[in-house]
Amino acid sequence: MANRGSTLVTEDEITRQEAFMHSVRELNPGADKKYLISTFGCQMNENDSEKLAGMLESMGYIRTDEMDECDLILFNTCCVRENAELKVYGHLGALKPLKSRRPGLVIAVCGCMMQQKEVVEHILEKYRHVDLIFGTHNLHKFPELLYRAVTGDAAVADISSCDGYIAEGLPVRREHSVKAWLTIMYGCNNFCSYCIVPHVRGRERSRMVSDILDEARFLARQGYKEITLLGQNVNSYGLDRKDGTSFAALLHRLEEIDGIERVRFMTSHPKDLSDELIYAMRDCHKVCEHLHLPVQAGSSRILAEMNRRYSREHYFELVQKVREHIPGISITTDIIVGFPGETDEDFEDTLDLVENIRFDYAYTFLYSRRTGTPAARKTDQVSEEVKKKRFEELLNIQNRISNEINSKLAGTVTEVLTEGHSKNNIDMMTGRTRTNKIVNFKGSADLTGRLVRVKIDKTGTWSLDGTLV
Ligand code: SAH
Ligand code: SF4
Ligand code: F3S
């Protein structure tokens, strides 16, 4: 932990947390304490949950999927849209009877939602069966906070604001054995006018290149074949370090790691998608032919209102350039419908963009008003009814396009990284193409973690079926 630069958690702090992990273990002598973590939101939250699980297992906790046998239930929350928050309140409310039956059960809530003061106050007041609340900036203090929650009587709430710390060296208990999330930066500087993320995740903080490479090498040694680099805007990776590091340079360094076969990343902001990055994607063989490039809206006027800092025309030019340099690349996107002030004409611009770009897939969202963001204060909010109508229309068009694009793959042979058994059918294995499409095929479990060639027989909107060749 020495010589980690000024923005990182000190060796003392980590040692202190290790001492708490030990203390919690001592508190549970011989008992098999069981835990369950329920994660909402994006991949960065999933990666945080893997670290929380890693810390819990270091404290002797064992994972379970059965709420009824839990000694600890932890919700890692998201607040990007209202329905993500409503789900958490629903789950919390439903736990009241269990907590009455089992007073020793510890109920904890963490994540983005907890970075909002009014949410914490609401939970402390209305959900009195909650024992522990903490935010996104003090994840590494979880062992200490849990110790306090287990040994004390009152609820523990510790919501620090961002102090620029990055905790390195936390234990991680990963969900998958073939592909791994690797967070390269935290926070966001962009303040899109609809978005709460910069308010709850703080400013951009990039990890050191050497820490990222160490983690990637460690993953390779453990047999991981694919890594996905995570950040709210990976294209601006390194800019805060002011040491000349760039995301493109990082991709070149990862290319050298033996054992890692595939590198993916998300998310890219169009305003920061540089030529240097496009060339790096073209030149680094391990970097997959897939780009998730959220457009959000097809009308330049709405894009300006959203504070996205690119125009519709610029987006078209970017996609054209990317396709020129990386033939066959799949492009996916995020789109918001019903941003305040969105007229029928603005929405037509979005449909027109979708028809012309032809995304492989689009994640579409109804605009959700987030307290504290500039868009929430706008008076020209679009009615729920209009939003829903537009949403359906967009979804139908995009589903048709995804289906058409996939249908062209019938008969082709493609490289698939086998991830394991298919969820729906135990006889089938599942994996992804380099372009991030799901492929199901007949095969045995020993193919897990292997790159295989599959001939595509049948195509659908969301997945492909094939045969091993
Ligand atoms: N940093 C990423 C995405 C973060 S959130 C990026 O900028 O692309 C994931 C997606 O949620 C966003 O791309 C956006 O489409 C959607 N989103 C964010 N805030 C929203 C809101 N208030 N209402 C509806 N969708 C929202
Ligand atoms: Fe939110 Fe915009 Fe930052 Fe993405 S880039 S997290 S949409 S503010
Ligand atoms: Fe949600 Fe936080 Fe991710 S608000 S989308 S979990 S960064």
Structural description of this entry:
The protein is of the alpha/beta class and 469 residues long. The chain folds into four domains: 6-158, Rossmann fold (3-Layer(aba) Sandwich), CATH 3.40.50.12160; 176-288, 2-Layer Sandwich (Transcription Regulator spoIIAA), CATH 3.30.750.210; 320-407, 2-Layer Sandwich (Transcription Regulator spoIIAA); 413-468, OB fold (Dihydrolipoamide Acetyltransferase, E2P). It is built from 14 helices and 19 strands. The chain has helices at residues 11-27, 43-58, 82-94, 96-101, 117-126, 142-151, 197-201, 209-221, 247-255, 275-283, 300-305, 312-325, 344-357, 384-407, and strands spanning 34-39, 62-63, 72-77, 106-111, 132-134, 156-158, 179-183, 185-186, 205-206, 226-230, 262-266, 290-292, 330-337, 361-366, 413-421, 428-433, 438-442, 451-459, 463-468. The strands form five sheets. Strands 2-1-3-4-5-6 form a six-stranded parallel β-sheet, sandwiched between helices. A hairpin with a 3-residue loop joins β18 (451-459) and β19 (463-468). α1 (11-27) packs parallel to α6, α9 packs parallel to α10 (275-283) and α13 packs parallel to α14. The longest helix is centred in the C-terminal third of the chain and has 24 residues, at 384-407. The radius of gyration is 23 Å and the shape is globular. The N and C termini lie far apart (47 Å). S-adenosyl-L-homocysteine binds at residues 80-81, 194-195, 197, 232-233, 267, 269, 294, 296, 334, 336, 365, 367-368, 370. The site of FE3-S4 cluster has 11 residues, from α2 and α7.
Identify low-pLDDT runs: 1-7
In CATH terms, what is the architecture of the largest domain?
Answer: 3-Layer(aba) Sandwich
CATH superfamily of the largest domain: Methylthiotransferase, N-terminal domain
How large, in whole angstroms, is the Cα Rg?
A: 23 Å
